[in-house]
Amino acid sequence: MTSTPPPRALLSALYHAAVQGAAPFPRTRDAVRDWFAARPALPADSPVFVIALGKAAPAMMAGALDALAGLRRAVQGGLVVGAHHASPDAHAGSTDVAELPPQIRVMVGDHPVPGPASLEAADALESLVHELEPGSIALVLLSGGTTSLCAAPIAALSQAVGDAERAQAHLANLAQTLLESGLAIHEMNAIRRRVLRWGAGRLAVALVGRGAAHVPVFAFSDVIGDDPAVIGSGPCTADPLDDATFLALLDAHDMRARVERAMGIVLGLEGAGHPPVVPPASHPAFARVGYTLVARNRDAVQAMAQHARATGITALHVQEAPLEGDAALLGDSMARLALQIAQQAPSGTSLLLCGGEPVVNLRETIDRALARGEEDDLRPADHGTPVADEPLRGGRMQVLALSAALALEEAAAHGDPAAWRITVLAAGTDGRDGPTDAAGAIVDAAVPGLARRAGRSPEADLATGRSWLPLDAADALLRPGPTGTNVMDVVALLIRDGRRG
Questions:
Q1: Contacts of 467 (CB under 8 A, 6+ apart)
Q2: How many domains does the chain contain in total?
Q3: Do 239 and 380 belong together in one domain?
Q4: Of 464, 424, 470, which Cα lies nearest the Cα of 451?
Q5: In which band, very low, low, confident or very high, does the pLDDT at 92 lie, cut at 50, 70 and 90?
Q6: Which of 314, 361, 374, 482 is the most exposed place for a label (fewest CB within 10 A)?
Q7: Measured between alpha carbons, how far is 314 from 67 in angstroms, rounded to an integer?
């Protein structure tokens, strides 16, 4: 019988299996190869351009170039817009984007809030569009992070505030507002794509307008439901929302009171204006777009399950429904589910796997605490400075992990021995959870106590968006570095054999 590794080692291995299960290089290579193989009548001399956008862009570009080299199709030009300068390929080690051919320009945008680098990347994309020739094949490789990394304002926003640089600042404010409001990714992108230069199908329209005969899109999904209009804010997909539905979405989240006045006017929330015009689904450009879903969250979760079986774990539960909703509530409920499983099965090792993308509504959480007069609870354990005076630091997976750890600690304090058998992994597949250096964390019932001994108040930190601090103090963070892929988040709850003590 195969012996089960220690909890942290096993969960770390499961995380790396998830990342490899959604490796961009081989999946993109095979998808591009298959697309051309299905179209043998394509002229051999058609100019080929490749655009790779998002956190997986470098590895996706490398995979596409490998396929094109095997097909003996020369690449005339291309662009990579990623979140960093190096990305793992299909093999061990990493591929520096400097190794890409000289006709491929490499840019690094801003994430998760767009800034000057994102505007520069969007301008570079516009320059590449103008290089296209009639009859070109324009491959578009999309992955998570695209919305922010090459974000730039539409002309109407720039005209409303004076210039593109000021408009970019308004985009940044909008992004920050949406991130703090706890909206799901499909809701955030439904709002953002209306004011993005390349969102809501505008990239496809521009490519076809410059002569592209084919626009095959290859996407790594970082959204629940894998909707092409949501991934990367749908640069090659028509916006499915009409103006009335779009405005209803804004009102449902009280955006009239939250966005800056200039942005509100452009969005159609103030005055007699209307929401920004988007290309209709009937636009002829979309007839030249083909869409291939290359990888999704389920691939990562299934890779975890396969690795778990290889270690000898047979009591395996894979949750089909995606994780969505409030991250803190999910962490608490999942820890309690693991406790139930542990109580029902005191012997043997069990594993619960799932994936998705929860949300964190930071502003609402703090406002509720302040409204209840709980300012004293929003202070760290070792000094009197309010937690609100410390910088925000954390992400949705760190929130989920810390919430789960607190639930396990509570169960242990009430004498439930099952609590000490449970260890939880919660991490983003891109290697970066929120604006931090960690993908997430691996926690158990001991983590909150370790954080307190280091001077933190995990309850206050959880309530105020500072989950990174207690997890770091307890040495619970998972820091794999950028993985080069992005298919949302994965969670694993390990329940050890109760007979081992």
A1: 393, 394, 395, 398, 399, 401, 402, 461
A2: 2
A3: no
A4: 470
A5: very low
A6: 314
A7: 38
Q: Which residues contact 332 (CB under 8 A, 6 or more apart)?
A: 403, 404, 406, 407
Averaged over 67-88, what is the pLDDT?
87
pLDDT at 133 over 60: yes
Under DSSP, the state recorded for 382 is S
Task: Record the tokens describing residue 5, joined without a space.
Answer: 């590794």
Return all residues near 239 (Cβ < 8 A) that are at least 6 apart: 190, 193, 194, 200, 201, 229, 278, 279
CA distances from 302 to 2, 52, 88 (A): 20, 26, 20
Greater confidence (32 vs 273) lies with: 32
Could you tell me the CATH number of the domain that includes residue 306? 3.40.1480.10
pTM above 0.70, yes or no: yes
Do 201 and 173 lie in one domain? The reply is yes
Question: Looking at 260-274, 298-312, 404-418, which range is the least confident one?
Answer: 260-274
Whether residue 424 sits in one domain with residue 336: yes
**pLDDT at position 501 over 80:** no
Three-state SS annotation for 318-377: ECCCCECCEHHHHHHHHHHHHHHHHHHCCCCCEEEEEEECCECCHHHHHHHHHHCCCHHH
Within 10 angstroms of residue 30's Cβ, the number of other Cβ atoms is 14
Which ranges in 228-347 belong to alpha helices (H)? 243-252, 255-258, 261-267, 297-310, 327-344
Q: How far apart are CA 355 and CA 15, in angstroms?
A: 12
Distance CA 125, CA 400 (A): 37
Which band of pLDDT confidence, cut at 50, 70 and 90, is reported for residue 272? low
